[in-house]
């Protein structure tokens, strides 16, 4: 019988598949037998083992129960599912949930902390349609977005500064109703006592000191860290020698961006359909 050679070092999804096959082989079970015990088809088992399908939380939990592996596969499954996220981002999120101050600059898309469920779902659906992620990975992304937003209601609440490139507002995501609701969410967020929302207009031109999305965190002990993304990877930086210049650039960006009052006015006009 032909068996696909696995490359567990290629990705967390592949590593999970290799581990599942090893455990199944150790018990002398076929894919049909494991699938019958777990309640999945042998085709599904094969797809997970060969890395063609990431394990869902339900799948990993059932595998642990059937194979008697405690929560090993459940924990490994979390790493496999986060493979849909850029490198460094899951670690950033853990620190964000504890930060005293959060500073965001985003280009082209509303930041996850401010997204409505329908806006987030539309983004995810687009990524799934393009084949960039699987439906299961899309579900994981949406769940993570909801968890990040829930962390903002903790006590004491963090201070959140947000600068949106104008492209975040001009790029349509989903239907006009989805965008109208999203604009409403931005206005509600700007009205909170612990937030500042500004728009960096296209007219800033070369005065824009930052050209990529940047997230900055101030922890309760006043330590700083930054997270920046390119198209293919993210990087979490803790060294103050590298973070402080980014913070300085962010302050320059805030100074050049529209005031919160002017930003709210722009968002309100867009919500009403005014160009």
Automatic annotation (TrEMBL):
Ranges where the HTH cro/C1-type domain occurs: 20-73
UniProt keyword list: DNA-binding
GO molecular function, one term: DNA binding
InterPro entries for the chain: Cro/C1-type_HTH (IPR001387), DUF5753 (IPR043917), Lambda_DNA-bd_dom_sf (IPR010982)
Presence of keyword DNA-binding: yes
Entries under CDD domains matching the protein: HTH_XRE (cd00093)
Cross-referenced PROSITE patterns: HTH_CROC1
Protein name: Putative DNA-binding protein
